[in-house]
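README, section 4: Worked example with a bound small molecule

Sections 1 through 3 covered apo chains. Here we extend the same pipeline to holo records, where the ligand is supplied as SMILES alongside the sequence. The molecule in this example is pyridoxal-5'-phosphate. Nothing else about the input changes; the structure line simply encodes the ligand pose together with the chain.
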Amino acid sequence: MKITQNRMDRGFFKYQEEFEAKALEVLRSGWYVLGREVESFEQEFAAYTGAGYCVGLASGLDALWLAFRVLGIGSGDEVIVQANTYIASVMGITINGAVPVFVEPDRYFNMDADRIEEKITERTRAILVVHLYGQASNMQPIVRLCEKYDLRLVEDCAQSHGACFDGKMTGTFGDIGCFSFYPSKNVGGFGDGGAIVTDNARIASDMKMYRNYGSEKRYYNKVVGANSRLDELQAGLLRVRLSHIQELTDERRRLAERYNSSLHNPAITLPEVRTHADSVWHQYVITCEHRQALIDYLNEKEVGTIIHYPIPPHLSEAYASLGYGQGSFPITEHYADTVLSLPMYNGMTEEEQSYVIDTLNSYSRA
Ligand SMILES: Cc1ncc(COP(=O)(O)O)c(C=O)c1O
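The generated complex, written as structure tokens:
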């Protein structure tokens, strides 16, 4: 049996009729950018997260860099971010000329709240929390630090749609929550898309201005903005996906529970979920000390896996100018060398998952 790490087509076929009907409705409407579908999606997504406002954007990266732009964070400012994130989190900071200050992760792959305070300087303006792999970060101490030092709090929720800490949804703890609707995400579109959520009306209206060339009124441009509009087709299709989000999240949770209870190979370590937090299992990430041998074995058995992520941002060529090297963030680097994401997708059959479980349980290093 051949199993890939993700199957985005399954998520489409699950609600095929609804997606196709919505696509035709939008195509036939004659209105394709910033219209009824985007407005409805924004209202529905804000209501889903519990935030006051949602603004649809063209991608998760745009949500991040525009968040810092709207907050007035730029050249000379420092933003604290976890070191083991997808590079887009860091680009959201540096596109504005601000400096990323990296913090090592905890054993749940999220920012280690105990290591933040030592990184705060007089230049620190914000903390960017990334709810990596779908699990909520340890928000209580992070919110307290932001209050103590008067820092802005931005959340990267590209992987955490619907994940909660103490019952409150990720994206609603700070000033701005940033989301991606890239097709593989838990709320995935059929192309690129993103959004921010906020409780602050001013931030929401500024974001609407920035996403549309910096104009509130056509051809009157107040600031140098971007073209970062969620289009009507994506918004319509995202409304369909969002209407099924509980079912989709429950399915991922069932898959994760089955991995948790059925995988028992001492060569691998299973992911843990923090008390007070939950996970929407964007990825199911194990660690394995001799990872390449395991990958080779799984490839041979046609079980696909992905490494999220093999090169941490501080070691990426793109950030060579920051001056870090091997050994700068050992915990992060160790994760980069040992993490492995198992197949996890909506529409995964019991038979497929059994095959992955049996294959992994039968593994022993030669
Ligand atoms: C943690 C994280 N942040 C930001 C992004 C960027 O989102 P997008 O691909 O929509 O630009 C992604 C997704 O790729 C991500 O996983």
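What to look for in the output: The chain has twelve helices and 13 strands. Residues 59-61, 85-86, 88-89, 130, 156, 158-159, 180, 182, 192, 194 surround pyridoxal-5'-phosphate (CB under 6 Å).

Section 5 describes how to batch many such records.
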